[in-house]
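help with this:

***
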Amino acid sequence: MKPSQLRAKAAKTLSQLLKQEGSLASLLQRGDSAQDQQSFPLLQEIIFGTCRWYFQLDAILVQLLSKPLKAKDNDIRCLLLIGIYQLHHLRVPEYAVVNETVGATKILKKEWAKGLTNAILRGFIREQDSLVENSLKKPQGKYAHPKWLIKRLQGAWPTQWQQTLENNNLRPPMTLRVNTLRVSREQFLDQLASAGIGSRAGELATTSIYLEQACPVHEIPGFAEGLFSVQDEASQLIPDLMVLAPGQRVLDACAAPGGKTCHILESGHAFTSVLALDNDARRLERLHENLARLQLSAQVKTGDASDPSQWWDGKPFDRILLDAPCSATGIIRRHPDIKLLRQDADIPKLQGIQSQILETLWSCLAPGGVLLYSTCSILPEENNTIVERFLTQHSDAKVEGISASWGVECPTGRQLLPQADGNDGFFYARLKKSDLAASKAPVESSTALENSQ
């Protein structure tokens, strides 16, 4: 792909994103040709970077435009943002950025924008320091986040909101989860060192390893053999928090693409069954691939977690993981398009979904069983608020405290905030169902039966 074509493609993709026509995961796909494969890393860097710094870049562009562009020319606006991003954040020669960005206007079939594009980019080059300084005068430009999210984080985390926003703008570390059924973490660290790959052990999860430099997963020895998976350290805490044991019936209720399901199976317990459930059949294909590569086995079903009639056999589960759909505000550094896709009005809608699924799955939990509620959100409205409301409505539910040295203790669980060289943002609440509910349960769980014998 020629440089001007690449920039035109980046502008089209960003324009689609702003029109809510998909996420980067769905819009940004590798091409089949060797040329497309070769140019994909730069394409990805430009789009991800522009999303990461979008609100600051936009604050700069507004100063350079004499009047706003028309809605039908949003692709040109995106092209200008991309050009400013390259000039300000990438080590690309100025002449190359200007020439290729101007050339992209022809590919976008808007040659009228050649002069405008040239003038805007050269204007930025001349006045870069003052333009950037002015963009920092408002919170959106200074922290490169939408105003609504800054406001919510200020209220939620009065002493940590600034650091959290700054960490969101950093490139995330590449984190591995060692498959301890096949190799110990110490052994795998040695294998990485022998391969010349710098790494260190994580501090929170006993299976986690951080790489000094991110690299293609297939270049790391042991991937095809199932010795490891790529997974953030925060997610790797989940199996221990679920208090897993042999003989349990386990449900991973929103399972795709399967990282947590596989980690549960890698814990090594002889479970009675493990059901991985998700309502997205396409994403479940990834789960099947992960199970096969890791040589693991689980029951996999497509179904809506809020409608058990689609998938439940009526036998209660001893352990349920509800990694609930959420705003994903704890993983913005990995998915910077969240800044553009999420809106303040989405939060109440998500709260409704979270409460509905939690309410429904509670009826599927065995007396004495444990449900772990988790999200990759850092907004209390999706976390502590949801659990507290649930507790007021269920006398048979109680919080099991999570004793740990990591994260922030909340009334119903613990919250991890994104760390510069560490974990993503994640929330956990462990809920136990009263044994007194046994008289109401239609079918005893496998663990309950074993304990009675």
Notes: Residues 114-135 form the longest helix (22 residues).
